[in-house]
Design brief:
Number of helices: 10
Distance between the termini: 123 Å
Radius of gyration: 46 Å
Largest sheet: 3 strands, antiparallel
Number of domains: 4
Number of strands: 3
Length: 247
């Protein structure tokens, strides 16, 4: 078994525990308490249990504590994968996007992500994805514009003919149909035959010793039938009233 690494002695047990008490990071506080237990004379196994780790991990934190002090017991965030596009690549992208493509040379009127990827590969032999280009352009202050989707089998002549064919009946009869529907929905407040109303009231005597007014519109030649009677009975009564009035 190897020999345990000694802990630096310029910090006392009380000072280390005070650091653990004031620490805002819970992991740092546990490691400080484990090192304080080592300074207090506890075994490395018991000190490792106090910090919630094994002996090898405690050994690594003791090395970090001896080199950097209490601040060295904080986890260092991982820098992650370095970006593929550096300042030179970003400056190149910003310049060509601001200048724009030449349609006669590049064959497009606006840069696409695939075009920018090819330009980067031709200039720097760098291969990137579409997401990398989009993120870089967003960081540079450029907005992404997507074209409206279009089916590759669309026929422009057929579309124009369809629009003309559908527009003609709507344009010619829209006002007339709207006025007819409005006339059917609006019910007059006056009674038939009063205040200049040209409707003709027809009195029909029903067998049930009750009477209703049926309004006849000369221009439509139709009759408003009551809904509380059956259609067959009402149709017979209306026909009889027409025969009496001679209309």
């Amino acid at each position: 078994m190897g020999q345990a690494i000694p802990v630096r002695t310029d910090y006392t047990v009380g000072e280390v525990r005070q650091f653990a008490k004031r620490a805002k990071d819970a992991a740092q506080a546990r490691r400080l308490l484990a090192i304080a237990a080592v300074l207090d004379g506890a075994s490395r196994e018991a000190a490792a249990k106090i910090g919630g780790m094994d002996r090898q991990t405690l050994r690594d934190w003791v090395i970090r504590f001896n080199e950097q002090g209490p601040d060295g017991l904080i986890n260092i965030p991982s820098p992650g994968v370095p970006p593929k596009l550096d300042d030179t690549h970003r400056a190149f992208l910003a310049r060509i996007v601001k200048e724009g493509p030449i349609p006669a040379v590049h064959g497009v009127v606006r840069w696409r992500a695939c075009d920018l990827i090819m330009r980067l590969y031709e200039e720097f032999a760098l291969s990137v994805s579409d997401d990398t280009i989009y993120r870089a352009l967003k960081d540079l202050g450029f907005s992404h514009v997507s074209a409206r989707p279009k089916a590759y089998k669309q026929d422009p002549d057929a579309i124009a003919a369809f629009k003309k064919r559908m527009a003609r009946p709507v344009a010619s009869g829209f006002f007339e149909y709207a006025m007819i529907g409005l006339h059917q929905r609006i019910r007059p407040r006056t009674k038939p035959g009063q205040d200049g109303d040209t409707r003709v009231p027809v009195l029909i005597n029903f067998p049930a010793s009750s009477a209703i007014f049926l309004t006849r519109f000369p221009e439509r030649r139709s009759t408003v039938r009551p809904s509380r009677f059956r259609r067959s009975q009402t149709r017979q009564l209306v026909s009889a009233s027409y025969a009496q009035t001679g209309r």
